[in-house]
Amino acid sequence: MTQNSANLLAQAKQNLRGQLRGHADRIRLTWMNGSLVLAGRLPTFYQKQLAQEAVRHIQGVRNVENQIAVD
């Protein structure tokens, strides 16, 4: 993992903590060729969308692949 991708993942985790508060730890992040992949489980579709919006404007992220499942 490059320093740049580590920085992107750190920024994404920080953004998720701000948006999802107690649920951010339920999300796994993976960086692949300019795409940020979100995976895990959240209680609501609304939270799934919040997670996507929290990371999609991070500089360097070209695409967000939202694989989060809703309970």
Give your account of this protein's structure:
The protein has 71 residues and is α+β, with helices and mostly antiparallel strands. It has one domain (3-70): Histidine-containing Protein, Chain: A (2-Layer Sandwich), CATH 3.30.1340. 41% of the residues lie in helices and 31% in strands. It is built from two helices and three strands, in the order H-E-E-H-E. A hairpin with a 2-residue loop joins strand 1 (27-32) and strand 2 (35-42). Helix 1 runs antiparallel to helix 2 (45-55). The radius of gyration is 11 Å and the shape is globular. The chain starts with a helix and ends with a strand.
Q: Which short descriptors sum up this protein?
A:
alpha+beta; Histidine-containing Protein, Chain: A; 3-stranded mixed β-sheet; 2 helices; 41% helix
Identify the CATH architecture: 2-Layer Sandwich
Largest sheet, spatial ordering of strands? 1-2-3
Please state roughly what percent of the residues sit in beta strands, choosing from under 5%, 5-15%, 15-25%, 25-35%, 35-45% or over 45%: 25-35%
Query: Helix amount, in percent?
Result: 40-55%
Would you state the CATH class?
Answer: Alpha Beta
Helix-strand pattern = HEEHE
**What Rg, in angstroms, do the CA atoms define?**
11 Å
Number of domains: 1
Average pLDDT works out at: 94
